[in-house]
Amino acid sequence: ASKALRGRLDQYGIEYINAIPAYREKAKSGAELFFPTDGHPNALGYAVLAELVAEYIEGEHELQANGESAQ
């Protein structure tokens, strides 16, 4: 999410999963996570996001709210 969107979510107390750190970590290996034409996640990008959602469901990842950092 963009900084502006995260600010709004925090402002209204809406929890969210911040995928940016996971995307950055995966990208360090040279992985392409997004389509170059429109910036949307490709299959690998969605796999990274799916892993974060699975971790959240299994209780291994926390949502973010009010500027707090997730695990």
Describe the structure.
- The protein has 71 residues and is an all-alpha fold.
- It has three helices and no strands.
- The longest helix has 15 residues, at 43-57.
- It is globular, with a radius of gyration of 13 Å.
Q: What share of residues is helical?
A: 40-55%
Kindly provide the radius of gyration, computed on alpha-carbon positions and rounded to a whole number of angstroms. 13 Å
- Average pLDDT works out at 86
Shape: globular
Number of helices: 3
Beta-strand share of residues:
under 5%
Query: What's the number of extended β-strand segments?
Result: 0
Order of helices and strands: HHH
Q: Find the structural class using helix and strand composition.
A: mainly alpha
**Biggest sheet features:** none
Low-confidence stretches: none
